[in-house]
Specification:
The complex is a heterodimer of chains A (98) and B (221). Chain A contains 5 helices and 3 strands. Chain A has 98 residues and is of the alpha+beta class. The chains are: A alpha+beta (98), B mainly alpha (221).
Chain lengths: 98, 221
C-alpha cells in the first residue's frame, strides 16, 4: 500500500503543482511566461512562488536584459521533491489498479 | 473522488502541462558554430582543390567522393551535437534522452527516411551519382526536420528550418542558364552556403540573444 503521507503537501496544492510542473519542463521561466501559461493573478502567483522559494524548491534569478526580468527555476532539491512526488502518485495509481 | 482517481487526475494535468510547456533546442549553439565552420571549411577546401585541378579538365572529386566527404562531415557534427547536448543535460541535471529529446527524435524520424533512402539508392544504383538532386534533397529535408519540431522548438530553429527549405527549393528551380558552372561546383557551394553560412548565422543569433548584461541569483531562503 502506498503511503499517502509521503505526498509532499507543499507540491500537492493545485496551483503550486502546476508551477512545479512548468518549472520541471524547462531550464527556467520568466514571471510573465508563468503568469500567461497558468492564467493566475499576480498576487496568487507571487504567493505560491514565495512559498516554494522559502522551502528551497525554487531558485529566483533577477536579470537585466533590455529591462529587468525575474526568472524562476527548480533547485536540485525542488527537482528531487517533484520526482519523488510523481513516484508516489504513480504508486497510488498502481495500487488502485491491483 | 478516491485517492486513485485524484492521483490519476493530477498525473493527467502534469502530463498535459509538460507537453504544452516543453521547448527543446535540438541544435545547440556550439554545434551550430562548429558545424557551420566545418561545412564552410569543407566547401572551401573542395573548391580550392578543384581549382588546382582545372588544367586537367576533369573535376578533382567525383560525385561519390563528394558525397562521402559530406557524409563524414555529418557524422562528425552528429557526434559533436550529442556531446554538447549531453553536457547541457548534465548541467541542467536531466538525462540525455529527456522527454524533449525523445519528442524531437519522434518528430524528425519520418523526415530523415527520404534523404537516407535517396542517399543509399544513389550509392547503390546511380553511376554517376546526381549531385544536384542529392544535395537538394539533403538541404530540403534537413529544413523539414527542423520544421517538424516547430511545435516545441524555439523560434530561431523554425526560421532556420524555413531558410533551408526555401533555399533547397530555390536551388532546384534556379535556371541553370543564369550562372555558368563548367566545373560543377554548384552543389558544393550550395552545401557551404546553407550548412555553413546558415548555421553560423544561427549560432551568432542565439548567442547574442542569450547574452545578459547583469544577473543576480537569489539563494533559496
Amino acid at each position: 500500500m502506498p503511503d499517502f503521507d509521503k505526498l509532499d503537501k507543499a507540491i500537492h496544492e493545485k496551483g503550486r503543482l502546476a508551477i512545479m510542473t512548468l518549472l520541471a519542463s524547462r531550464v527556467n521561466w520568466s514571471f510573465q511566461d508563468l503568469k500567461s501559461e497558468l492564467r493566475m493573478s499576480d498576487g496568487n502567483l507571487i504567493t505560491h512562488l514565495r512559498t516554494l522559494h522559502k522551502l528551497g524548491l525554487v531558485a529566483v534569478t533577477k536579470e537585466v536584459r533590455d529591462r529587468p526580468q525575474t526568472t524562476y527555476a527548480l533547485t536540485i532539491k525542488g527537482r528531487t521533491a517533484f520526482t519523488e512526488y510523481l513516484k508516489v502518485l504513480e504508486e497510488i495509481v498502481k495500487a488502485g489498479k491491483a | 473522488m478516491n485517492e486513485r482517481s485524484r492521483a490519476e487526475e493530477h498525473l493527467r494535468v502534469i502530463r498535459s502541462l509538460m507537453e504544452r510547456a516543453t521547448i527543446y533546442r535540438a541544435i545547440s549553439a556550439p554545434t551550430a558554430l562548429l558545424g557551420g565552420l566545418l561545412a564552410l571549411a569543407t566547401s572551401g577546401t573542395i573548391w580550392l582543390i578543384d581549382r588546382g585541378h582545372a588544367a586537367s579538365g576533369a573535376p578533382a572529386f567525383d560525385a561519390r567522393h563528394f558525397a562521402e566527404i559530406w557524409l563524414l562531415n555529418l557524422a562528425i557534427v552528429l557526434t559533436v551535437n550529442a556531446f554538447f547536448l549531453r553536457q547541457e543535460a548534465v548541467k541542467a541535471n536531466r538525462i540525455l534522452l529527456s522527454p524533449g529529446a525523445r519528442l524531437t527524435i519522434r518528430a524528425i524520424a519520418p523526415c530523415l527516411l527520404i534523404p537516407a533512402a535517396t542517399t543509399i539508392w544513389f550509392f547503390r544504383n546511380a553511376e554517376p551519382i546526381d549531385e544536384e538532386i542529392m544535395v537538394a534533397v539533403w538541404i530540403m529535408f534537413y529544413g523539414l526536420c527542423l520544421l517538424a519540431t516547430a511545435l516545441f522548438a524555439p523560434r530561431s530553429l523554425v526560421i532556420l528550418g524555413w531558410a533551408f527549405l526555401l533555399s533547397g527549393l530555390i536551388y532546384v528551380f534556379w535556371p541553370k542558364s543564369f550562372v555558368a558552372d563548367p566545373r560543377g561546383m554548384g552543389p558544393n557551394l550550395a552545401m557551404g552556403a546553407t550548412f555553413g553560412l546558415y548555421h553560423l548565422i544561427y549560432a551568432i543569433a542565439i548567442w547574442a540573444k542569450a547574452k545578459t548584461s547583469a544577473s543576480e541569483v537569489l539563494a533559496p531562503e
